[in-house]
Amino acid sequence: MIFDQERIPGEEKDAGFEYYRHLFAYDFARRFCAGKRVLDLGCGYGYGTAILASSAASASGADFSAAAVAKAGRTYSAVPNVSFSRQDARAMTFKDGEFEVCCSFQVIEHFKEPAAVLSELKRVTAPGGSVIISTLNAEISGSVFNPYHFKEYGRAEFLGLLTPHFASVELYGVMASPAITESMKAFKAKARRLASLDVLGLSKHPESELVRGLYSFAVLSARAAFRIGRKPENFSLSDFSAEQGAEGPCIDFIAVCSAGGGK
Fold first, then answer.
1. Could you give the 3-state DSSP secondary structure of residue 220?
2. Percent of the chain having pLDDT more than 90?
3. Which residues of 95-108 are buried (b: 16+ CB within 10 A; e: fewer)?
4. How many other β-carbons are positioned within 10 Å of the β-carbon of residue 87?
5. DSSP label of 31
6. Which fold has domain 4-258?
7. 205 band by pLDDT with thresholds 50, 70 and 90
8. Does 132 score more than 70 pLDDT?
9. Pairing between strand 168-176 and 252-258?
């Protein structure tokens, strides 16, 4: 199960650059969703699903966490074209071709079986539809240690993961402003200092409940310390941009994949 703090609460902008980093992917994807049936796989608390719904004909949020789905349903109950359901990304209950666009942001790194997730995303995407996937760039913004990430990808690895499943893959790199870059460096420096305290080698056992509990405490502590004196309004969507080809030093990748089979 994903640690709850892996899900950015959309109504709490004190998550700083992390919040806007997630928000940017949804803002980027919205242009592909106009008037279409859209899936948001790994929707968390649903703020991104609601963003996609602002241009989509309908937006369905799906997450493995029953608590997250329930909260999303309550928060966005007044949005008429949004729905939420609990789903296993490796075996979704949706029909073949049910959606015209499927989005999944900062999710694929959490799976031991990423190919199963990609196969399901392709299955529920209509012929000629698009699958839009984001993940962090391991070479630039990879985690110091995250027991909930089974695999973090560099550019070549991410393309190698996607290309067997889709007719075409167009890769974008998410570029960050100097302010964001410095904030990330500061956060990672704190994470490294915490990791250096692991004299017992607990990080060698990432699936241990003890290790995950300690990690959760460390993340909460680091974020609390990091936010002191930093107001959320210091950051905005304008701190990010997307570079086609992802050749530069990007912090994240966004892949726009064609499901194939269209006219």
1. helix
2. 59
3. eebbbbbbbbbbbb
4. 22
5. G
6. Rossmann fold (3.40.50)
7. very low
8. yes
9. antiparallel
